[in-house]
Amino acid sequence: xxxxxxxxxxxxxxxxxxxxxxxxxxxxxxxxxxxxxxxxxxxxxxxxxxxxxxxxxxxxxxxxxxxxxxxxxxxxxxxxxxxxxxxxxxxxxxxxxxxxxxxxxxxxxxxxxxxxxxxxxxxxxxxxxxxxxxxxxxxxxxxxxxxxxxxxxxxxxxxxxxxxxxxxxxxxxxxxxxxxxxxxxxxxxxxxxxxxxxxxxxxxxxxxxxxxxxxxxxxxxxxxxxxxxxxxxxxxxxxxxxxxxxxxxxxxxxxxxxxxxxxxxxxxxxxxxxxxxxxxxxxxxxxxxxxxxxxxxxxxxxxxxxxxxxxxxxxxxxxxxxxxxxxxxxxxxxxxxxxxxxxxxxxxxxxxxxxxxxxxxxxxxxxxxxxxxxxxxxxxxxxxxxxxxxxxxxxxxxxxxxxxxxxxxxxxxxxxxxxxxxxxxxxxxxxxxxxxxxxxxxxxxxxxxxxxxxxxxxxxxxxxxxxxxxx
Length: 471
Prior knowledge:
By secondary structure, the protein is α/β, with parallel strands linked by helices. It contains 19 helices and 15 strands. Mean pLDDT is 90; it is low at 1-23.
């Protein structure tokens, strides 16, 4: 049985010979039970190197032999790779909020209600100026030929539709654009504009029926938007660049498997099934228990595999795929919430409608984390301010009990906004520790059973290079 690590690394568990003693001067492996009948995982937590080892050979591997000795020769390389991933990246994306307002009042929204009711739009002229400043910033900081990303985010960006469409039209050759929307304003004209310009479109839906979905996603009059979202899905069908975000709460938890069937039936190419963020108090009323969340979420993942086996068509659950990819090829992961420091202020930052800069959209509305203003401050200098450093300096090694956890680089103790607001500090954990732990165990079982391709995107391993192989 082969396993993979880093850029396509493969490591076959093998009977060991000789001696290898963990004295503290070399790698210190930890064994974790992944719930598989035949294999356990052996991990070096410092580098995220791992191997799947037959239960009958575990004692041999941990006491010494080919695998530990061969790995010891590559430890410095893997350490450099992990350090580059965690500390050597530069921002390449902006979550751009073109308005504070929203036409919905979702129970778990992380943006304060007053902002969503009474907030301002960014005027078109100012939005174009912001894009020009960002263009020049990225031109100076990223390699030549790179295409940074601008994701128009919410509140509800399409409330300021004319301005963002003008920005996409003017800067279509300078950025990869995306729009994350509640879908209520995605009419035929909007869909035609966005799809014809290859803008990625993310919409939100939490359940397969209006009765369930409308419990938490509703407008200011208390009415749900399920029918409008379904209409938008039908308009987007056939377009490769769209996806759906589902937020997992105690209101929809037991319906996730049905939701997978619903998404697959509607030919959704990819989705995110994100556990609720508990940054603001209203969200915490919807928190499911960790083990209940894991039970129903993993059952939903099982269902995606069954549908793939039956039809040959994937429904990739992007947040789980990212955990799986973080194990197989850490440097190739697409999302940066499950590593520490997280991507906030490090791989991306958020822009408020008045130009204020925050490490992540989760911090908009928390003035403590305002680092500066795009229109009045140098963007590079803002990234070095204390509010940003609070986030970019949050390391899992400084958090108890995460610093002792074998899977700390597959989880990252998310989320810093959640940890700060809910638990009182950056050195605290976020929520749902056991939920993330069970995802990692499940991911290792997927690898052990040779099912990886069913859960990841097409051509996920294109361009990867094998750097370690033993067995």
